[in-house]
Amino acid sequence: MGSSELSAFSGASFSSSIGDSAEFDVELTLNDRLKVFKTSQFDCKGYITSKCHATNEKEIRHLFAYLVDLKKASAEEMRKSVYANYSAFIRTSKEISDLEGELLSMRNLLSTQAALVHGLAEGVGVDSLSADSDSSTKEDTSDVTHREPTDMEKWLIDFVENLDVLLAERRVDESLTVLDEGERTAQEASNRQTLSPSVFLYLQAAIKEGRQKLADQLAHVACQTSTSGLELRSTVQALKKLGDGPHAHKLLLNSHHHNLVNNMRIRPSSTSYGGAFTAALSHHVFSIIAQAANDSLSVFGDEPAYASELVTWAVKETKTFALLVKRHVLATSAAAGGLRLAAECVQTCLGHCSLLEARGLALSPILLKLFRPCIEEALTTNLKRIEQSSSALAVVDDWTLVLPPAGIRPLGAWTSSLGSAIASQLKLSTSAHRFNSMVQEFFEEVGPLESLQLGGSTLEGLLQVFNSYINLLIHALPGTMETEDNLGGSGHKIVRMAETESQQLALLANASMLADELLPRGAMKLSPLHQTGRMDTPGRVSDRQNRFPEHREWKRKLQRAVDRLRDSFCRQHALELIFTEDGEIRLTAEIYTSMDGSTNEPEWFPSPIFQEFFAKLTQIASIATDMFVGRERFATILLMRLTETVILWLSDDQSFWGEIEAGPKPLSTFGLQQFYLDMEFVILFSSQGRYLSRHLHQVIKNIIARAIDAFAAATGTDPYSVLPEDQWFAEVAQIAMKMLTGEANFGNVDHDATSPTASILSHGST
What is the pLDDT of residues 205-223, one digit of tens each? Predict the structure, then answer.
């Protein structure tokens, strides 16, 4: 750039020419950015001058940074383009290399033909002159026969004899020196015309024959299995000096191929089969590939044609090795579910293969592509084994929560770091302990295979196995199998029934502990942080999971499976409460419409079905308090869902509301008051038990309002004129709760006939 151009570059307004840097900040594709540089009329100096009229140092730095980024992006685009068309690139490079060799041979052939034609032309001229006089020719011949050879002729004789001796003695370096000397002499003779055509042709023929003999000798040496590495490199180097580089490179790779094949001895009866066999074979194969890469680089450098041929050869040898390991090791271990052996073999091969990346050979994708099907088969086999083992133990599981058996670490490496409070939560039933131990072992075996990117398929497979185990737990609930039969379900497995409420809650404890703690902790072994040894403390599982969206989504799916079990539990207990063993409905409108014929005010107390409902919830809450230590929220949600199940059934029961709203017996004052009391009773005990949700509270209020509207429509009376105050219902419900739980003490209460207490005391004395 001239001084005038430099001053123009530094004095013009840079910001105005680029629109206040908008051109650099706007998000353009790489092709759009490079369009201006792709035109055939692109002028570098003119472009810079037009863009940078007046720039300061900051703007120049901005432009420089932009151009550097553009250069990096262009290099990345070129790399992607090369990788996308790599096979075509290698094939084209090989064809170009072959074409160069053919052109060189053609040039030598044309030179030989030209010299031959020139010699024949001179020979014809000599013959025509000699035809004039036989006597003169004989004299000339006699003169030539008896004259002394020239220095050049003497040198030629010595050259041929010396070359023959050196070739016979296989003295390669000296032979190359002699051939180079012959080439120089022939070139000088051709330029100075110091040799007759016949002698010149003889010299060229001798050089060509010597080169061919030396090339044949070198090729023979390169093909010998006994040739050492140093001798092989010197042989290939000599062939390259002879001008046959492509053939020399092929011989180098073929020699390493034969060395590789000759040392692969597959003996099915060998005790080294399995991990040791794979380790030895992998070390052998990739050591030879590494040696071939070193030899190619030392002899041929980084020329693209030879580098491409080396990559093609290495890929072919890697595929052969991978198929051999797959056929003799991985296929059998995968079919038998030997995931640990398969993982060790894959890790060993990838470890050896990764050492070649420093030499520019990225062969890991080849191994991953060929090994992946076997690993996936082993994963499937192991998952089926977990499912079958859990199903077998569920047949004899007594659904009693116990600590892990001796020798089982429920959380692997995390167990030792857990406090006693957390460890006490690890009580599961027998089948759940077995399920968890097999899953944790499965995670430890799959963890090293993170490079295969099996995390998604592994988690999905485990989710299916967990869903299968949840189905077993659902079938263990009484009445569940009969319900599925009525709905047309089939295919359920035999499982031991959980008869008591404690056993049924143990089913939920199994599911919640697995889904909330054990399985998510084990799944973290599949994360990249665990593989690199940068895991956090065991107590921060939820924080780590938030870093991996796939783990977070997987945990939500686990929770949905637990929700299915919880809903089945609530549905079963709601049906037991609402229906009799004969299938008759207990919660009917007759409970309230039958109070019409009563002339005396009844003894106010919650209806028997709601008393039983309260007793059931109290019993479940008591068991859950001891069983879900540290997981009280799960127990609260369980009680909330059970209460909602019963109340929602009442809200949606058309037969119940049909009797209330349009039945032959309209709802009387006493009936409405009893219904109001029952609903307030539910609100009170669920509120004090801390499982009254907003949704449940609103549903109950809507039910009460519907009953009041039905009463008003049937009697034409203002309901609030006949109903007691809300405080009365709250007091009656509160006293009823104390009496049902055995906490009531009315020894010092004044027996007012109109008070709720007097009514309930009268009820309790009957």
Answer: 877 777 777 777 777 777 7
